[in-house]
C-alpha cells in the first residue's frame, strides 16, 4: 500500500499560484479531505501531515526546499520511516499533458522535471509512482497566437482562469480514484482516471 504521497512545488507565498505548484494543490486538497494539517518538520526538510487510511499510516509531504532539491525531503522521510520507493506516490505538474488531464504511472524518465530528477537521485531508483497533472506547454499558447514564452517562465506563472478550472477538475478526478489506488488496485485506478476527459 502507498505510505507516502509527495506533492511537488516551490515554497513561499510568491509561488502559491504557480503552475509548478500543482502537486502542492493536490496534497492540500487531500489533507482537507482527510481533515489533517501540515506541520513543519525540520528533520524532513518540509511540511508533513499524517493521516490514517484503512487503519494504515499515510504521510503527506510538501518539500520545503525549492523544486530541484525535492529529493532531500523525500529521502529523509523515507529513510526514517523505512518507506520503499514502490510505496511512494509523487504528484507533479506535467508540461506534456493538457490542463484537465491526469495520468498515473510507475517509474520511467523524468521528462526534464527537476523535482523528479532529484528524487530519483536520492532514492537511487526511478521506480516510484507518479501522478502527473497536466498544465499544458507554452508552445500550445504560442500556437493560439500568444507571445512565445520559455518553459521556466511558464511554470512559474499562474494558469489562465480556464486552465485553472481544468486543473482543479483533474485534481478532483484524481482524488476520486485514490481509494482504489491506495488499496493496491492500481490498474482499475489508472483505467478510471485515464478515461476522464475535462
UniProtKB/TrEMBL annotation:
Gene: pth
One CC-aspect GO term: cytoplasm
Family according to the record: Belongs to the PTH family.
GO terms (BP aspect): protein quality control for misfolded or incompletely synthesized proteins; rescue of stalled ribosome
Catalytic activity, as annotated: an N-acyl-L-alpha-aminoacyl-tRNA + H2O = an N-acyl-L-amino acid + a tRNA + H(+)
Organism of origin: Polynucleobacter antarcticus
Single GO MF annotation: tRNA binding
Protein name: Peptidyl-tRNA hydrolase
Function recorded in the entry: Hydrolyzes ribosome-free peptidyl-tRNAs (with 1 or more amino acids incorporated), which drop off the ribosome during protein synthesis, or as a result of ribosome stalling.
EC number of the protein: 3.1.1.29
Enzyme class per UniProt: hydrolase
Amino acid at each position: 500500500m502507498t505510505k507516502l504521497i509527495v506533492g511537488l512545488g516551490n515554497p513561499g507565498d510568491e509561488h502559491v499560484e504557480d503552475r509548478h505548484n500543482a502537486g502542492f494543490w493536490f496534497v492540500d486538497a487531500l489533507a482537507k479531505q482527510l481533515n489533517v494539517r501540515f506541520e513543519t518538520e525540520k528533520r524532513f526538510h518540509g511540511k508533513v501531515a499524517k493521516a490514517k487510511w484503512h487503519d494504515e499510516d499515510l504521510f503527506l509531504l510538501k518539500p520545503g526546499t525549492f523544486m530541484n532539491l525535492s529529493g532531500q525531503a523525500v529521502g529523509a522521510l523515507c529513510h526514517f520511516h523505512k518507506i520503499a520507493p514502490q510505496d511512494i506516490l509523487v504528484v507533479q505538474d506535467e508540461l506534456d499533458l493538457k490542463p484537465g488531464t491526469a495520468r498515473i504511472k510507475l517509474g520511467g524518465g523524468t521528462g526534464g522535471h527537476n523535482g523528479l530528477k532529484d528524487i530519483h537521485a536520492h532514492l537511487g531508483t526511478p521506480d516510484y509512482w507518479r501522478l502527473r497533472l497536466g498544465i499544458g506547454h507554452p508552445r500550445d499558447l504560442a500556437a493560439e497566437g500568444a507571445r512565445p514564452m520559455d518553459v521556466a517562465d511558464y511554470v512559474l506563472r499562474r494558469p489562465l482562469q480556464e486552465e485553472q478550472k481544468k486543473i482543479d477538475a483533474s485534481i478532483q478526478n484524481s482524488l476520486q480514484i485514490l481509494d482504489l489506488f491506495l488499496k493496491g488496485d492500481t490498474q482499475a485506478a489508472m483505467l478510471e482516471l485515464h478515461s476522464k476527459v475535462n
